Amino acid sequence: MVSRLGIGSSYGASTSVIEEAVERYVNFLYWGTVRRPAFGRAIRNLARRNRDGVVLTVQSYSRIPALISPSVEVALRRAGLDYFDILLLGMRNERPGPAYIDAFERLREQGKVRFLALSTHNRPLLRSLFDEYREGKSPYDIFMLRYNAVHRGAERDAFPYVPIRPQPGMIAYTATRWGDLLDPGKMPAGEPSPTAGDCYRFVLHQPSVDLVLCGP
């Protein structure tokens, strides 16, 4: 079972903090935008103890499909892993071409990744991909999009169109709007600023959201 919260590597949390989070049942780890060494050490340590107890995602921003496999191979070696659960194609505001899907399929056939995810700010593209998923034609198992109390366009343009049966995995990120929602100076006079927990709860109140990512 996947936790409702996930942790990304961008903000430099220490190895011990990541390991403690997993002990507290946060089992989705996202080695994403910045592959920090401390995060890689945590992945290595946790996988040695209980590989089946963590869901590990590696991200690729590569705009050259042929570079995806070498990037994943490097990440596997650095983390001491045989495979990642999820390969995420990051920041894709246009539909990735067939060569990207072929790169994923080769990695999956080699047992190095299991599922394919896509992150985008292009909500009309998401609607098109949802239609394909509903028809059983989508290569993607999981979708990731921005959603928070300020950026709420997904309530209109994405969430109403998420397939129900079967339903893809849905990840939301930027719950705190990169910290802006926690800044007392940006609140109306006399209004307390929300906590990070408030921001995550706001995102998770959406029935379509399975997981909110912290520190992507």
From TrEMBL:
Q: Which Gene3D superfamilies match?
A: NADP-dependent oxidoreductase domain
Where does the record place the NADP-dependent oxidoreductase domain? 38-162
Instruction: List, alphabetically, the Pfam families matched.
Output: Aldo_ket_red (PF00248)
Spell out the SUPFAM superfamilies in the cross-references: NAD(P)-linked oxidoreductase
Q: Which InterPro entries match?
A: NAD(P)_OxRdtase_dom_sf, NADP_OxRdtase_dom
Identification of the protein by name: NADP-dependent oxidoreductase domain-containing protein
Q: Which organism does this sequence originate in?
A: marine metagenome
